[in-house]
Amino acid sequence: MAPLVVMALGVSAWGTASRASPRRCRALARGVHGGRDAVVPEQGALLGVNLDWEAETLAEHRDDLAHAPAVAVQFSDVPYDDATWEHTVGAAGQVEENGGVLLLTLEPHGGLDTMSDEVVDRLAEDLRALNADGVPVVLRFAHEMNGSWYAWGQQPQKYVETFRRVAAAVHERAPGTSMMWAPNYGGGYPFTGGQFAALPGTPDHAALDTDGDGAVTMADDTYLPYFPGDDAVDWVGISLYHWGNQRPWGDNDVTEDGKFLAMLTGTYVGTAGDDAAIPDFYQVYGVEHGHPVAIPETSAIYTPSRDGADELAVKRAWWRQVFSERTHEEYPQLKMINWFEWAKFEIEIDDDVDWRAAGSPEVRDAFLADLPPWLRYAEDVDVCGDG
Fold first, then answer.
1. pTM for this structure?
2. What's the total number of domains in the chain?
């Protein structure tokens, strides 16, 4: 879920990127820390935040929750100009001060054809500079590519080729940056009616028809045609939200038991739909392919204008599933969880939604009380890999 406003701040609002210690910079610049492996915790999962940078700084969020998030998510267009990249530099400066990792989500809204060799080369060099300043980066490039709502969506062949070019350049030149492949959760696939849906009779449509019956339905593999290959992918990610218990979305419903893990494993069958045909994302890409699994975004919908359960009941029921002991014990490849800390208008329901865990003292305090000890924070991220 991309924020509706991702570049509204002036550069001065971000502050100036601070400099890392010489030891930290040298380690990242030379890649001696192992780059892509260093930020994956051996035990537990990184707890991060998808922050509304316009509403608060990372330091303010850290102070409010009394812990330093291990991951901070930022969005940017690509290709980008100097002014746009300065927003990312500013966010990276806040991450360097806070500690932890920048999860940079790059969105090629002009389409995949805009990712020329020159654009990719500049990106790799700019990421190298962030790494040299002591900031590890996880690059989530062109996420939700299996959806039909983005200009890079449902173009599996071009997407895989483009992702692999970006990954090759990043892996070669920015050793402190890792690549995240992050499709949209498959419930509702193939998301017909979107502007960029693959059309029957096209090569893309044929590539998505994995069962060969001439149609693209949920019976086809919702993820595999878009997978760029293990050599190009370091992290796999899938954002999981509680949008309510049934259509139309937006009601303030307490989630059904077990919904979070059922969505992660493609076994959800309930009032919100029958998703049993979806592949087990965790098993296939986390266990069989051996990649660390991330939940780049998660939250439960609370719509202040509507009746139903109260805000705390809605959100607490969801986060208790996300942070359950079962999640920790049975899904050890789950290495990153980022809460979506936004209050924003959602066009899907034509209403304002408060997704935040820290939007009120009551909800914040309950959230903090329920955070389990297996979560890792910024001070647990060893960017130099030297212990």
1. 0.91
2. 1
